[in-house]
Design a protein that fits this description.
The chain is about 15% helix and about 30% strand. By secondary structure, it is of the alpha/beta class. Strand 33 (about 280) and strand 34 (about 285) form a beta hairpin. The radius of gyration is 22 Å and the shape is globular.
Length: about 300
């Protein structure tokens, strides 16, 4: 998330009542999660295990719960609870705005786009030309949709990311202030859910097609010309490179990458990154031919046991 203007380190520190290390006028241009930060961004870290990763990432401002040596060219915001204060910044720069109409007056809808009855379109949504938005679709604030996109009934774009911190009093939610971006020539089936980014974008690139009841987690990027069959679940921060195929009920854990032109057969479970250009099966997913051999061998076990007896 980029701020509307560049703020000083002192201004940001005042917003969250935090101490700081660095020049008062050190420039702060936005905030993001660690996997998508750029120079000028704030990143937060609240566990010593991840201090080095945060301090060495591209972000130039680190919101941290301990005063440590500040790397050259960077600044620190010192907080007793970085998670809480990251949420404060999200609320300040991307506050929730209640809707007062089914289709916001601030939405921009392109030529020849058809909006069917009972569609909700939130604030600052942009929809391109020649799209069809079927009934009972909900498009949350700040979503961007390209040209020639079809979205079928009951789909939700822009729900909050599933991101929580476990505290003694219960689960504390990390607020989502990002967007959903749908590029040209995408089709989304009925009852899909595409969560917005926590601070960045959840993106579905041009030409990709999603079947019914597909879940796409926060900050995930689906490449060009991907095919995703029904009831797949894709966690947050996943990258599907171009022309990946997921058959029905594939599940993918967070922060993995599936290489270009990979194929995941139905009901596979992905727990780590996979190379492109191969077909995979099983849970955990492995090259399909090898997995089939393993299953065939398992089927022989009863006969083998009988010979041992």
């Amino acid at each position: 998330m980029k701020f509307p203007r560049t703020h000083s380190l002192k201004e940001i520190a005042a917003l969250i009542d935090a101490g700081f290390v660095g020049s008062e006028d050190f420039p702060v241009q936005g905030m993001n999660e660690i996997h998508v930060v750029e120079p000028g961004d704030i990143v937060f870290v609240d566990h010593p295990k991840y201090y080095d990763k945060a301090l060495q990432c591209a972000a130039t401002v680190v919101l941290i719960n301990k005063e440590v040596e500040c790397p050259e060219g960077k600044a620190l915001l010192i907080s007793d609870d970085p998670f809480r204060d990251f949420n404060k910044l999200s609320k300040h720069f991307r506050p929730f705005k209640p809707a007062s109409e089914a289709i916001s007056s601030s939405a921009v809808i392109g030529k020849n786009t058809v909006i069917q009855p009972n569609v909700f379109i939130g604030n600052n949504v942009v929809i391109g030309d020649d799209c069809i938005i079927h009934s009972n679709v909900s498009i949350y604030d700040n979503t961007v949709i390209g040209d020639r996109v079809s979205i079928h009934a009951g789909t939700v774009l822009g729900g909050d990311g599933f991101y929580y911190k476990n505290r003694p009093a219960g689960f504390d939610k990390l607020l989502s202030g990002g967007r959903v971006v749908i590029e040209d020539d995408v089709e989304l089936g009925a009852m899909c859910s595409v969560d917005k980014g926590v601070t960045g974008d959840t993106t579905i690139k041009s030409g990709s097609k999603l079947d019914n009841q597909v879940q796409v987690g926060h900050d995930t990027v689906i490449g060009r010309k991907c095919l995703i069959a029904s009831q797949c679940g894709i966690a947050g921060c996943v990258v599907l490179e171009d022309e990946v195929t997921l058959w029905g009920q594939v599940g993918i854990t967070s922060a993995v990458t599936i290489g270009a032109k990979a194929v995941l057969l139905g009901q596979s479970g992905v727990s780590k990154s996979l190379e492109g250009g191969q077909t995979y099966f099983g849970s955990p997913a492995e090259p399909a031919r090898e997995k089939m051999k393993q299953l065939a061998a398992i089927k022989q076990m009863p006969a083998i046991v009988k010979t041992i007896r």
